[in-house]
C-alpha cells in the first residue's frame, strides 16, 4: 500500500488489535455473569451471589469498556511523527477577505 492510501485508514492495526482484545474482555465478563436462575425446585439457589457473578464478571466487563475507550482515542505512531515534523501552516498570504 502506498503512503496516500494508508492516510485514509481510520484505525491502525495496533488500535484494531487492542479493540479486539477489549471486546474479548467484555464478552468474557458477560459470560462470567451468566448462570442459572435464583429459583430452583428445591428452593433458593445461593449461586446467584457467587463472587464470579457479582465481582469478577462485572469487573472484567467494566475494564473492557474502559480500555476500549482508550484503544479508540490512542493516536497512531505515524500520525504523531508526521504531526511533529510537519511545518506550521503559512497564514501570511491570507488576506482575510471572504471568498
Which SSEs are present, and which pair or pack?
Elements lengths: L2 H4 L6 H21 L5 E2 L2 E2 L6 H23 L3 H9 L14
Antiparallel strand pairs: 1-2
Could you walk me through the main structural features you see in this protein, from its secondary elements to its overall organization?
The structure is a single chain. This protein is mainly alpha-helical and about 100 residues long. The protein has a domain at about 10-35 and about 45-75. The chain is built from 4 helices and 2 strands. It has helices at about 5, 15-35, 50-75, 75-85; strands at about 40, 45. The protein has a two-stranded antiparallel ribbon with strand order 1-2. Helix 2 (about 15-35) packs antiparallel against helix 3. The longest helix is centred in the middle third of the chain and has 23 residues, at about 50-75. The protein is rod-shaped, with a radius of gyration of 24 Å. The model has no long low-confidence stretch (mean pLDDT about 80).
The whole-angstrom Rg is 24 Å
The first-to-last residue Cα distance is 37 Å
Order of strands, widest sheet:
1-2
Report the principal-axis shape. Answer: rod-shaped
